[in-house]
């Protein structure tokens, strides 16, 4: 089965934190955090129209300018999601520049910040020099026990968040595919049907919850031939598709190890296929980690084990351990594997 999400760290384990998630079979990506990100290059940055910010300490937000610069003139909407204060933070960034020559640019920046019980939203348009346009406050539905809440709901996937204690709210995120759709190419070939872009539409119909008797027409291209074919969705699912459990990725940065944070982290990472977790300190320096509102590698491994994740990636190592990256990884993995 080919996974729908391909993810990787934006920088090395000692660099600014961030995870880039490519959505396969599309020119779309998601970006978690906005640290230094020049290494992604313009093409990948342009694909990341949805960006999820944990908090706006410099190493998590300095890359906003790079994203803004490549987005100009592209006729797109850039959407940012994050903690209280994000609207003011973005406005402050935008006010640091002069915008007298951008009235013809089509760029829009949409910000959603999540408070306890409510969501605030604002738009910034290049056409008016990025003057803020705030929208009415909306109520926020929150799960009562885990404190998780939804920040983005797409037909294909859901992004949830939870606020962790870093002396300010620091958001952890999970990305979860609704379910996975795998196409049996051999059966398509046997039926004389080509593999192609038309299958993306089929998947969209299923993610949208269309009924099995839904009929649709697709344009097929095979050996330079073009033909129109009508299909019934239920027959497509039965003959050519396998629907299985969806993929899940969790992302946690900058949080102190305490009872409340641990419960929230375990909840948002529960059952993840891939868990990205910050591990700035070795456990011998656990007191220092607590004072700095960060985790140790051992604590990351213990929580990954409790959350029953499949794989753990630790990163955001403190520069005090330069040259000891393997020691941090080993400590995390020993706790994760229970050795």
Instruction: Specify the overall morphology.
Output: globular
CATH superfamily of the largest domain: Ribonuclease Z/Hydroxyacylglutathione hydrolase-like
Number of strands: 19
What's the end-to-end separation, in Å? Answer: 30 Å
CATH topology of the largest domain: Metallo-beta-lactamase, Chain A
Domains counted in the coordinates: how many? 2
> Low-confidence spans: pLDDT under 50, at least 5 residues?
none
Q: What is the level 1 CATH name of the largest domain?
A: Alpha Beta
SSE ordering: EEEHEHHEHEEEEEEEEHHEEHEEHEHHEH
Protein described:
This protein has two domains: 5-178 and 246-337, Metallo-beta-lactamase, Chain A, CATH 3.60.15.10; 187-242, no CATH class. With 339 residues, it is of the alpha/beta class. Helix content is 27%, strand content 32%. The strands form four sheets. Strands 1, 2, 3, 4, 5, 6, 7, 8 and 9 form a nine-stranded mixed β-sheet that branches. The chain has a six-stranded mixed β-sheet with strand order 10-11-12-17-18-19. α10 (297-306) packs parallel to α11 (325-337).
Primary descriptors:
339 residues; alpha/beta; Metallo-beta-lactamase, Chain A; 2 domains; 9-stranded mixed sheet; 6-stranded mixed sheet; 11 helices; 27% helix; 32% strand; globular
Quick synopsis:
It contains eleven helices and 19 strands. It is an alpha/beta fold. It starts with a strand and ends with a helix.
Topology, element by element:
Layout: E1 5-9, E2 19-23, E3 28-32, H1 41-47, E4 48-52, H2 58-61, H3 64-71, E5 77-82, H4 86-95, E6 108-115, E7 118-125, E8 132-134, E9 138-139, E10 149-153, E11 157-165, E12 169-177, E13 180-183, H5 185-190, H6 198-207, E14 215-222, E15 225-232, H7 233-240, E16 241-244, E17 248-252, H8 259-269, E18 274-278, H9 286-291, H10 297-306, E19 312-315, H11 325-337
Parallel strand pairs: 3-4, 4-5, 5-6, 17-18, 18-19
Antiparallel strand pairs: 1-2, 2-3, 6-7, 7-8, 7-9, 10-11, 11-12, 12-17, 13-16, 14-15
Helix pairs in contact: 10-11
């Amino acid at each position: 089965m080919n996974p729908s999400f391909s993810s990787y760290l934006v920088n090395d384990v000692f660099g600014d934190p961030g995870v880039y998630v490519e959505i396969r079979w599309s020119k779309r990506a998601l970006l978690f955090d906005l640290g230094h990100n020049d290494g992604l290059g313009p093409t990948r940055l342009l694909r990341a129209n949805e960006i999820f910010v944990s908090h706006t300490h410099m190493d998590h937000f300095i890359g906003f300018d790079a994203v803004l610069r490549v987005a100009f003139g592209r006729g797109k909407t850039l959407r940012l999601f994050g903690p209280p204060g994000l609207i003011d933070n973005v406005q402050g960034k935008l006010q640091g520049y002069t915008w007298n020559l951008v009235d013809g640019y089509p760029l829009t920046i949409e910000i959603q910040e999540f408070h306890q019980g409510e969501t605030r939203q604002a738009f910034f348009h290049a056409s008016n020099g990025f003057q803020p346009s705030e929208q009415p406050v909306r109520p926020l539905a929150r799960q009562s026990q885990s404190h998780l809440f939804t920040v983005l709901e797409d037909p294909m996937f859901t992004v949830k968040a939870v606020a962790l204690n870093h002396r300010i709210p620091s958001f952890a995120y999970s990305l979860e595919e609704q379910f996975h759709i795998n196409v049996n190419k051999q059966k398509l070939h046997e039926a004389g049907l080509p593999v192609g872009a038309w299958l993306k539409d089929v998947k969209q119909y299923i993610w949208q919850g269309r009924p099995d008797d839904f009929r649709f027409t697709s344009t097929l291209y095979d050996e330079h031939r073009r033909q129109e074919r009508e299909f019934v969705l239920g027959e497509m699912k039965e003959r050519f598709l396998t629907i299985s459990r969806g993929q899940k990725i969790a992302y946690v940065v900058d949080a102190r190890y305490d009872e409340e944070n641990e419960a929230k982290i375990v909840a948002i990472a529960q059952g993840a296929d891939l868990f990205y977790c910050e591990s700035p300190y070795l456990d011998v320096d656990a007191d220092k980690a607590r004072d700095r509102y960060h985790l140790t590698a051992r604590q990351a491994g213990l929580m990954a084990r409790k959350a029953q994740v499949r794989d753990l990636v630790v990163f955001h190592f403190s520069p005090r351990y330069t040259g000891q990256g393997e020691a941090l990884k080993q400590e995390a993995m020993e706790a994760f594997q229970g050795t």
